[in-house]
Design a protein that fits this description.
This protein is mostly helical and about 260 residues long. The protein is about 70% helix and about 5% strand. It contains 7 helices and 5 strands. Strands 2-1-5 form a 3-stranded antiparallel beta sheet. Strands 3-4 form a two-stranded antiparallel ribbon. Helix 2 crosses helix 3, helix 3 packs antiparallel against helix 4 and helix 5 packs antiparallel against helix 6. The longest helix has about 45 residues.
Length: about 260
């Protein structure tokens, strides 16, 4: 392409679908873990909080983001600077954890708490998105439409608020499965709106390499495979801990019944 030309916004349908799938899978695991953040004694479980934050922020949001970035068809090679990419991952996980902790710590939650958590989470998601886009290294630069940027931030805040509400109000696996699809639609909606906010302008020269890079062609598939392995490990961990929890509850109930029988 000639310098100054606008790169058309075209996507690989397969990678768009892949980004949605990984977002839904991450959201489902996050919802399962979030339902157990508060233990039987009302205390916050660091383990379940970490699993939920990693599944939601690291897989459902960050993993979706970089697969979605690679879905954009570019007429020249694309790579990503390592440190901003890792920084965006830490931001997504950290903010998700803070938002989940803030809402989970209250035994009786209200709309204001979900709204505050949603604002914190949404701003973090938007920050991760634009930091991740800033990690792109290629023969182009972005011209931003501030109105669409603001719209993407608003979508992120609404999506985060809905995600927090769903995380603490669902009981059955079917409800969580349906909710994970809703969350994936919201996360993908924010991402692709954010992509729409940036007009890609071709330049004459490739940016100078200032740090280690990740190749854009292989990044989405690597992210997808790693994310699936992480989610599988989380699912096994959740299953085992859930079984142990049921066994403890059964033992407590059995001991209580024996105690009452002894009193009679």
């Amino acid at each position: 392409m000639q310098p100054g030309s606008v790169v058309p916004l075209q996507y690989s349908e397969f990678l768009v679908l892949l980004s949605f799938v990984i977002s839904a899978l991450g959201a489902y695991v996050a919802l399962v873990a979030a339902s157990r953040i508060r233990d039987d004694d009302g205390r916050i479980s660091p383990g379940y909080l970490s699993v939920s934050a990693l599944a939601l922020g690291g897989v459902g949001i960050w993993g979706m983001h970089f697969i979605g970035m690679a879905a954009q068809r570019m007429p020249f090679p694309v790579s990503y600077s390592l440190w901003p990419t890792l920084g965006s991952l830490l931001l997504a996980v950290g903010v998700s954890g803070v938002a989940l902790w803030y809402v989970a710590r209250a035994p009786h939650r209200n709309a204001l708490q979900y709204a505050i958590g949603g604002v914190v989470g949404g701003l973090g998601v938007a920050g991760m998105h634009y930091l991740g886009m800033n990690a792109m290294r290629t023969q182009a630069y972005f011209e931003w439409d501030t109105t669409i940027v603001a719209l993407s931030v608003l979508i992120a805040i609404v999506a985060a608020s809905v995600a927090l509400w769903l995380a603490f109000h669902l009981e059955t696996s079917l409800q969580r499965a349906l909710a994970s699809l809703v969350m994936a639609v919201a996360v993908c909606g924010m991402h692709y709106t954010g992509m729409r906010a940036g007009t890609i302008i071709c330049t004459a020269q490739t940016r100078a390499q200032i740090s280690i890079r990740l190749h854009g062609d292989t990044l989405p598939y690597g992210v997808f495979v790693i994310a699936c392995v992480v989610l599988l490990a989380m699912a096994v961990l959740l299953y085992r801990t859930s079984r142990k929890r049921r066994e403890r509850m059964a033992a407590r109930l059995d001991a209580l019944m024996r105690q009452r029988a002894g009193q009679v």
